[in-house]
Write a structure and sequence with these properties.
single chain, alpha+beta, two-stranded antiparallel sheet
């Protein structure tokens, strides 16, 4: 019984961790979709030249595991990405931090936890264009506040 519970818990954690992975994998190779993956290694190489005002980003960059960005300007594909992203984000594994609407532009920011990692997701919809930015790591809300001050 204990073994069954442990397997179930790890399966649920794996599903949470892969929620945004599935979205990126589904669309990243489609025509009209631009995607970028930035690894922890590349971030650490660039950390020496990253400063925002008086704040040294090295401490924050070390907490980021990876960043993924997806952009689509193809109306039909963008609408499918939007629908899939919102459906995934509203499954309850993520908490909505921000929702903003200004004319045709909508912006959503969500945070989720998975296996000790935080996953921040920004979804921006502007008419027929959609962008998804995913930052995964041990980055905290306090870290983000320090960067944006």
């Amino acid at each position: 019984m204990k073994k069954t519970i442990i397997i179930t818990v790890f399966s649920l954690l794996a599903q949470t961790a892969l929620s945004q992975d599935a979205l990126f994998k589904k669309y990243e190779d489609m025509k009209g979709v631009e995607s970028v993956y930035v690894s922890k290694t590349l971030l650490s190489l660039a950390a020496g030249s990253l400063n925002v005002g008086d704040f040294d980003l090295k401490t924050v960059v070390g907490k980021i595991d990876h960043i993924r960005v997806m952009n689509c300007e193809d109306g039909q594909t963008a609408q499918r990405i939007k629908a899939d992203a919102l459906a995934e984000l509203k499954k309850g594994r993520h908490t909505e931090l921000l929702r903003r609407r200004d004319g045709d532009e909508q912006t959503y920011i969500y945070v989720g936890k998975s296996g000790g990692m935080n996953e921040y997701v920004l979804l921006n919809i502007d008419g027929r264009e959609v962008q998804v930015v995913n930052i995964t790591g041990t980055l905290t809300a306090e870290d983000i506040q320090r960067i944006t001050r």
